[in-house]
Amino acid sequence: MKIRTLTPLAVAFMLAAPLTGHAELPAYSQDFERLAPAEAGWGNDALSSDGWITWVNVFDAGGSYLYQYGPFPAPNGTLGYSGIDVGQGGPQHGQQQLAVYSDYNNSSAHGSGQWVETFVLQQRTVSAGDVGTSWTFRFDAKRFNLATPSTAHAFIKTLDPDNGFQESASTSVDMSAVPTTWGSYSMPFTITAGAGQILQFGFVNTATDYAGSAIYYDNVSLAPVPEPSTYALMLAGLGLLGLAVRRRGR
Asked: 83-130, pLDDT tens digit by residue?
């Protein structure tokens, strides 16, 4: 009796199938090439249609919190928040990139020396199946016109709506001094928050007195990390593939 071997296609399916683990959150990936570029005014909803939202915290010159406005859909091409720019990419970045910067529409805050902290981010709700899963937030970035004392950060965090939306976990990377050439960045994050909490990932810029604060981002992704059991299945699949190749060679 001839033993039938697994085809490479079948083994590939075995390798790929477990990669999503048991997480219920969807993975995210965006290179901004298929979104409409920025234009004047608030009519271009390319970023908001892709799920990007924004809001602003304002602080006095000494760092004391004053007020907040938002959240609302992220704009694409105004004096504040965000826009899809063209022609700032390198070989791996195509023609379009995301620009994130302070809200320069808030002239009263900038003009009086107050600090304008502007968030541009994606948001998800944590489900029971997501608790304990690990993720990686990746992106490419380069500095555009950020000038001291402005700052910029990338972050991923969870917020607890039952505790005044306080942070329950957070990881961030300081982007304030990144080069003016493209580089790749990533941060790992394990969801320890309970079901119903809010997961956010994205970018924040803080500026005052109209100082430049723009950072370009591209190839943004959030993806689950395979669990150890998944790696074991992958190794087993590779073993089956090797066995199939050896048998075919006889």
From this structure: 999 999 988 999 999 999 999 999 999 999 999 999 999 999 999 999
Strand residue runs (E) in the chain: 28-30, 53-59, 65-73, 80-86, 96-103, 115-125, 134-143, 151-160, 166-174, 183-190, 198-207, 215-224
Mean pLDDT of 144-154: 96
Residue written as token pair 């990390």: 225
What CATH number does domain 23-248 carry, 2.60.120.260, 3.40.718.10, 2.40.10.10, 3.40.1010.10?
2.60.120.260
d(CA 97, CA 218): 5
Domain regions of the chain by residue span: 23-248
Q: How far apart (Å, rounded) are the C-alpha atoms in residues 36 and 33?
A: 8
| Residue 18: band (very low, low, confident or very high) from pLDDT cuts 50, 70, 90 | very low
The Cα–Cα gap between 155 and 174 comes to 9
